[in-house]
Amino acid sequence: MKVTVEDVGSLKKKMNVEVPEDLVTKEINTIYADLGKKAKIKGFRPGKVPRNILERYFKDHVKTEAVQKLIQDFYPQALSEVSLHPVSQPVIDPGELEKEKPFLFSAAFEVKPDIKVEGYIGVNVEAKREEVTEEEVEARLKGLQDLHSQLKTIADARPIRNGDFTIIDYEAKIDGKPVEGGKAIDYTVEVGSGRFIPALEERLVGLNPEEEKEIEVTFPEDYGYKKWAGKAVSFHVKIKEVKEKILPPLDDEFAKDLGDFSSLEELRAKLREETRREKDALSESKTKDRILDHLLETNPFEIPESLVEEQAKGMVSETKLRLASQGMELKNTGVTEEKLLEDYQEQAKKQVRTFLILENIAKQEGITVAQEEVEKRFQEISERVNQKPDAVRRYYEKNGLIPEVEAGILSNKTLTFLFDKANITYH
Length: 427
Description:
Chitinase A, domain 3; five-stranded antiparallel β-sheet; single chain
């Protein structure tokens, strides 16, 4: 086999492959031999059809199958021989298969840029270290208090106030007609939270248990639920029950009930430490972003369009999955998949550049991913999705996603390496 490579662009290669005549003949003979065992031709017993008769009936079929098989077999061998690693699907020109001649075909594809990242050790970067305030600690403490609160039905009937929880029945109509998904029975609303329909919540204040009322809400043009955007929706609401939130007292007993805390002050100290860790993690993340921005600016290089397109498609898929988790579909948002792909182009380019820079630095510094690290990541994923680690691994193997997991680990390790080597000025 002879292999030559042409540059047909800064990141595009054309690989020309010549398969020797004897290997071509061997492949054709193999196909005819298999065909002869199965072919049914009138006047001949199975397996006894002469070669010239087979050629008369199946010449074009054999030619097509031989070309496909030769490319399938010799394309990866040729890549290995010239040490090329395509990042796009090849565009194959199969050439012509001629009797008693070598078979020639070519494959055009994109490759990664040949880059050498410089200036990544000791990057000068400024970072902000925020102190933990007592207000933040108290806010977290009150969050725990709220989490362990109880709802109690108000014994003496009174009008609804902000902060109350009310059980309602409602039905929505547009122009007097019921709308899809606009009806609910025994629906709980935290009045004033803004988690339901803020304008409707405001109008619930002052209503009494067992009271019914028509409430009209005009939704903005950019409202997330497109069927209601820009429309006036009339809600028939019935107040069925009003509950108030009863908060547990913030004392030592409250702290003890939460776990291994002997006092409220010990719980506060724990919350203070958690807040500190979160602030440090956020500061480190922002600092890593600044380091990457510096490297992107000081190491310009061309990137393969195919990688950008694949990255943008992945971002669109993530968006669709996120919408699905919220019970929505992309088509209902008023944005097309084509528009999303266009909008994600610049972000995708930055992500591809970032990946290539980190991959290059990892190679230069000998940073690798150990199997134990992959297993640890599967363990983390399994805990998050409540599945066994083996089941998670099988899913990733089946869908060819393990290289992505390894690439993610490698990027994180390389970023940590850059962070540890940077000259960071805190203020």
